[in-house]
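Record type: monomer structure entry
Structure origin: computed from sequence
Chain ID: A
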Amino acid sequence: MSVCWLGANHSLPSLTPLTEKGLDRNNLPFISDPWCLISGRTMEYPLVWVLILVLLNFTTDVSGQVVVPSMNPLAVGSNVTLNLVPQSPINIGTWSYETTIIVLFYPNGSSVSKSYQGRVSFNRSSSELSICSLQLNDSGLYTVQGMEPVLYAVVTLSVRGKELTSACLFIFLR
């Protein structure tokens, strides 16, 4: 018996027709007709739709990556490398700061934004982004997005001024 036992004449899904047909609510029929899922006559089983959506979510090729900075927080003028963990070469993708693309990379090369030229380097084999001579305005959200393979990871970087660091040390030394 398939889920379509209610037939097309039942427009409002409910469990009432189950008991009218003598079926036990605790022993519901197995979904054996895939057309029933497509036709929408299985709304009395909302859990089925949730399971289908969960299964569809697992069929995408999104990798679980994390971006780890070499240090955080960092001092003005220092350097940082943003590493993907686990390391993963990305064929097509971007590294971005907030809404600005820093590096666009593709199979035959890469392109660095003019505002970052001379301060960043991109390692194609590990997909690492290195930033030199950090400034206070480098603090914020960094995102790597891969289209091949598909991945998305973010990290918040914090850059502190030298005067702030020395002021904090002075307070603790008193």
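Annotation 1: The helical segments are 16-20, 34-39, 46-58, 162-173.
Annotation 2: The longest helix spans residues 46-58.
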